[in-house]
C-alpha cells in the first residue's frame, strides 16, 4: 500500500467545478445534438470535482477549495461521499457551475460545451482558511480549464510557493503559470500545440524530431520557458510525454483502449494519481507510470473515468508497472531476430526505451568502408516503425558514454554477444546506470552475416 509507513498525504484541490450532463437521447448525426431536448440520463462530476474525487478514491486526504455556486450544491454530497472535504468560499461572480453536455454517437463520444461559470478567485485568495489549508497541504492541484479568473490564485500560490511541497497544475493556459515554479504542468496535445504557437519558440519550430502526434523536442524548451520542473503532455492512445527543461525524460504507455472505452475524465485521474505519488516522495517518471496504470485500471465502458479502489497496490496490475528507462546502442544495419529480441525485451522491462544509433561514419570506422548497407535515416525509420522504441538518437562516434551520461537510464542493455568482460566502456558506463543487463544470445543472427550472404550470392 502507498501509505504503509505514514499518514495519507493531504491534497488541496483548487479549480473549475464542472458538472457533466449526459444526454439521454441517442443520435446518429451530430446535428441532432442541438435540436433534441435536454433529458439527462446521468450527471457526473467534472473538472476539479472529478480530480478531487479521484484523489480521495486513491486514498489521499482531500480538501476542495473554491466557489461553489448554489446551482452546484447538489454535487457536494457526492463529493463528500467520495471522501472530499469542502472549504466553500463565498463571493462567486456567477450563480451557476460550469457545465458540459455529452452524448454517445455511433459508439463514440461527442461533447457539446455548455455554459461557463466565471468565478472570482480574489475572494478565494483573501480567505484566511485558504492559507491555513495550504500550510497543511502535502500537495496542491489546480484544475485550470479557463473558466475562472486565476490571477489572484496565481499570485497567492506564488507568494506561498515555499510552503507548498508539491504543486501540480492541469491547465489550458500554461503561460499564466510561468512565474510560479510549478512541479508538474500538465496539458493535452492540442493545448501543447497552442502553447507552442503562442510562445517565442514558434518561429524556431520546424516540426523536426516530432512524434506522430506532433510532440517534439521543443517541449523541453517550452518547459524551460514555463519554468516548470516537469511538462506532461497527454496524447490519448500515445500516452503522456514527459519533459524537463533539457530533454524528454520519459513517456507512459497506456493499455489497449477499445472504441467502447470512455476516456472522459482520464486526465483528471492521471493528475490526481501523479500528485499523490509525488506527495509520497516517488520520482516524477515513476509517479507518471503509476498514474497511467491507475487510468488503465479504471478504463472501461463507463461515462466518466473514476478510480474505484482506495488501495493502489491491491491489484496484480500495479505489480507489473515498469517505471524504468533503458538505453541501448548499435548499428542496426540490417534488422534481424537478435535485434528484435533485444528491443522486445527492452520494451517489456521499461517505460522509456532510447536507442543510440551509430552514424554512417562511425559504422565505417567500426566495420570498414563497405558498411553500412543502409544509410542512417533508413535505419532510423525502420527502428521507429517497429513500435518498440520511444526515441532514436544519432551516436556520432564509437563510445556510447556521452549519450548514457546525458540520458542517465536505469538500465544499459546489450545483446548476448557481449558480457561484462567483453563490453567496451563497461567501467565508464557502470557508475552512470542502476544496472547493465544482457539479453540471451540469438545464435546465427547478425547484420554482417546477412550482408555477406547477399554480397556473395551469384550475380552480385
Description of the molecule:
With 460 residues, the protein is of the alpha/beta class. The chain folds into two domains: 10-298, Ribokinase (UDP-N-acetylmuramoyl-L-alanine:D-glutamate ligase); 315-456, HUPs (Rossmann fold, 3-Layer(aba) Sandwich). Helices cover 32% and strands 23% of the residues. It contains 17 helices and 20 strands. The protein has helices at 32-35, 47-57, 75-81, 121-126, 128-135, 151-159, 189-197, 218-226, 266-279, 284-298, 316-319, 337-349, 360-367, 376-385, 401-407, 426-429, 447-455, and strands at 10-15, 17-23, 40-46, 61-67, 84-89, 98-105, 108-113, 119-120, 139-144, 148-149, 167-171, 184-188, 230-234, 240-243, 248-251, 325-330, 352-358, 391-395, 411-414, 435-438. It has a nine-stranded mixed β-sheet with strand order 5-4-1-9-11-12-13-14-15, sandwiched between helices. Strands 18-17-16-19-20 form a five-stranded parallel β-sheet, with helices on both faces. Strands 3-2-6-7 form a four-stranded mixed β-sheet. α2 crosses α9 and α9 packs across α10. The chain starts with 9 loop residues before the first strand and ends in a 5-residue tail after the last helix. Residues 1-5, 24-41, 92-97, 101-121, 203-212 and 309-322 have low confidence and may be disordered.
Short description:
By secondary structure, the chain is α/β, with parallel strands linked by helices. It has helices at 32-35, 47-57, 75-81, 121-126, 128-135, 151-159, 189-197, 218-226, 266-279, 284-298, 316-319, 337-349, 360-367, 376-385, 401-407, 426-429, 447-455; strands at residues 10-15, 17-23, 40-46, 61-67, 84-89, 98-105, 108-113, 119-120, 139-144, 148-149, 167-171, 184-188, 230-234, 240-243, 248-251, 325-330, 352-358, 391-395, 411-414, 435-438. The protein has two domains: 10-298, 3-Layer(aba) Sandwich (UDP-N-acetylmuramoyl-L-alanine:D-glutamate ligase); 315-456, Rossmann fold.
Amino acid at each position: 500500500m502507498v501509505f504503509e509507513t505514514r499518514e495519507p498525504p493531504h491534497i488541496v484541490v483548487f479549480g473549475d467545478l464542472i458538472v457533466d450532463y449526459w444526454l439521454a437521447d441517442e443520435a446518429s448525426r451530430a446535428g441532432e445534438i442541438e435540436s433534441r431536448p435536454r433529458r439527462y440520463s446521468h450527471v457526473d462530476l467534472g473538472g476539479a470535482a472529478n480530480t478531487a474525487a479521484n484523489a480521495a478514491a486513491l486514498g489521499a486526504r482531500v480538501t476542495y477549495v473554491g466557489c461553489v455556486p448554489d446551482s452546484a450544491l447538489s454535487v457536494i454530497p457526492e463529493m463528500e461521499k467520495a471522501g472530499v472535504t469542502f472549504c466553500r468560499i463565498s463571493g462567486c461572480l456567477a450563480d451557476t457551475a460550469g457545465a458540459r453536455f455529452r452524448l454517445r454517437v455511433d459508439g463514440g463520444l461527442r461533447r457539446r460545451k455548455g455554459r461557463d461559470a466565471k468565478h472570482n478567485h480574489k475572494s478565494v485568495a483573501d480567505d484566511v482558511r485558504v492559507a491555513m489549508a495550504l500550510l497543511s497541504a502535502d500537495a496542491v492541484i489546480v484544475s485550470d480549464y479557463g473558466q475562472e479568473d486565476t490571477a489572484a490564485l496565481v499570485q497567492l500560490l506564488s507568494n506561498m510557493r515555499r510552503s507548498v511541497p508539491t504543486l501540480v497544475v492541469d491547465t489550458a493556459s500554461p503561460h499564466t503559470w510561468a512565474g510560479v515554479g510549478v512541479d508538474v504542468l500538465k496539458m493535452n496535445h492540442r493545448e501543447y500545440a497552442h502553447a507552442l504557437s503562442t510562445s517565442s519558440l514558434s518561429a524556431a519550430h520546424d516540426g523536426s524530431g516530432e512524434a506522430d502526434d506532433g510532440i517534439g523536442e521543443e517541449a523541453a524548451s517550452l518547459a524551460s520557458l514555463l519554468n516548470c520542473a516537469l511538462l506532461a503532455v497527454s496524447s490519448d492512445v500515445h500516452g503522456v510525454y514527459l519533459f524537463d527543461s533539457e530533454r524528454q525524460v520519459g513517456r507512459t504507455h497506456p493499455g489497449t483502449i477499445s472504441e467502447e472505452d470512455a476516456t472522459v475524465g482520464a486526465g483528471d485521474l492521471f493528475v490526481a494519481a501523479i500528485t499523490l505519488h509525488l506527495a509520497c516522495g516517488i520520482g516524477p517518471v515513476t509517479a507518471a507510470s503509476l498514474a497511467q496504470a491507475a487510468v488503465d485500471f479504471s478504463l472501461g465502458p463507463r461515462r466518466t473515468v473514476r478510480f474505484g479502489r482506495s488501495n493502489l497496490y491491491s491489484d496484480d496490475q500495479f505489480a507489473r508497472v515498469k517505471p524504468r528507462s533503458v538505453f541501448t546502442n548499435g548499428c542496426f544495419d540490417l534488422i534481424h531476430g537478435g535485434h528484435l529480441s533485444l528491443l522486445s525485451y527492452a520494451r517489456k522491462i521499461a517505460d522509456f526505451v532510447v536507442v543510440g544509433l551509430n552514424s554512417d561514419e562511425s559504422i565505417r570506422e567500426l566495420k570498414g568502408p563497405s558498411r553500412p548497407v543502409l544509410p542512417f535515416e533508413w535505419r532510423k525509420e525502420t527502428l521507429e516503425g517497429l513500435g518498440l522504441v520511444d526515441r532514436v538518437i544519432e551516436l556520432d562516434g564509437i563510445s556510447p558514454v556521452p549519450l548514457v551520461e546525458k540520458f542517465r537510464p536505469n538500465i544499459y542493455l546489450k545483446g548476448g554477444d557481449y558480457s561484462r568482460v567483453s563490453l567496451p566502456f563497461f567501467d565508464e558506463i557502470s557508475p552512470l546506470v542502476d544496472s547493465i543487463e544482457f539479453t540471451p544470445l540469438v545464435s546465427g543472427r547478425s547484420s554482417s552475416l546477412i550482408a555477406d550472404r547477399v554480397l556473395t550470392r551469384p550475380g552480385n
